Amino acid sequence: MEMDLPSAIANAQKEHFHADWFLKCIHWLLSLAILVIFSSIGSVYSLINSYNRRSLIIQTISFVYSIIDSIWGYRDYFGHENKMCHGTGIFLIFFYLTVLIIGFYNSKINNSNKVISVTYKVLSCLIVLCGVIRLSAGVVSMLEFCYDDHTGQCNAHGIMGMSFIVYGVLLSVVLVVPWLRVNKGKYSQEMYDSTVIMVWGVINTFTEHRPWEPWSHGDYQHTSMGIIFWAAGLLGMFLSINRKRNFMPALTMILTGYAMSGHVQELIISTKVHAFFGYVLMFGGLARIVEISFLLDDKDESIDGEIRSFQYLTPFALILSGILFMGANEEQMQLVVNLGADHSSYILTITSAAMILQLWILALLRFYLKLTETSKTNNSAYDDINTLDHSDGQSQFELDNFSV
């Protein structure tokens, strides 16, 4: 029996749907490899002056790919280009171009201008963050999320979740890099943390509720979170005077986790994911208090001089909670329900992603320390040779502009 015309059209559309989905997945994975993984290696190279040339090569390759990526773009199943992907793609092209211009100029002047050198390093690290945003836009386009009324809610989850991840990354850097782990600055770590928390709280207090609309249950929840943030931040700043360590940033994590653990959602699975997010955040705050109170001496080093495995818990908890919160938006929770999965399966998958991300961050930090050690060794060897006497009275090596 021959298939009728409507059925044939439906089957053709279904085959096109699967082929289009396969190509989008390949495109996304390729973007992950080049715009995030490859670019993050280039960012590490950029932090050491003697490896700037390698970082520029990697950034040039990524820049060329970003142009191709923007031209290709992500297209949803209705045939029109997703505006967010197009916008982030164009922004990434100009951002890469800016970094390359500054990087080539910095290389030309041999890192002699500290402002240019520091600017290049900072922008090189921000490239990775831009790549992550680009990939997030790809997911939004592939799954057709965050359109219309869902846009604000997705943005809130994305921004807040990314903030937790960035905080976890910063704590990992401070923990692993020795010259940052030993606090010799004017202020303690908690002074910086409390200041950011205070500013964030002020912004949330006055932006979570529209004055011309009646107060809702969600408005009370989000505004109260903003109030506790700036109140805790101010107290933390006061307790940080004279480079004192204190518990307020960690206590803020615990209070935030407590509030989110009881944040009831429309879907049961969403309520459970939010609850687990809260538990993880509370655990991370408790681990931070234990670390500051019992594992660090007066010089902010571990008592035995080594990093204990317990100290990795807080950065990991922040990264995990950030990914959980980013993945707890309304439409993503509905997708999990439609797939027939439960909250435990989804949480385990998210936790696996957080572990891989933490692994990659720690690997990059170890790579940075190794490059720094190698660069210093090479410089020391060159300096020793440069001081040797030669029969012609001339030095065989010119290293006046060479710096780590």
From TrEMBL:
**Which chain regions cross the lipid bilayer?**
26-48, 55-74, 86-106, 118-137, 157-179, 246-264, 276-297, 309-326, 346-369
- Record-linked InterPro entries: YTP1_C
Question: Which UniProt keywords are listed?
Answer: Membrane, Transmembrane, Transmembrane helix
Question: Where is the Protein YTP1-like C-terminal domain positioned along the sequence?
Answer: 132-367
Can the keyword Transmembrane be found in this entry's annotation?
A: yes
PANTHER family tied to this protein: INTEGRAL MEMBRANE PROTEIN (AFU_ORTHOLOGUE AFUA_6G12730)-RELATED, PROTEIN YTP1
Name used for this protein in its record:
Ytp1 protein
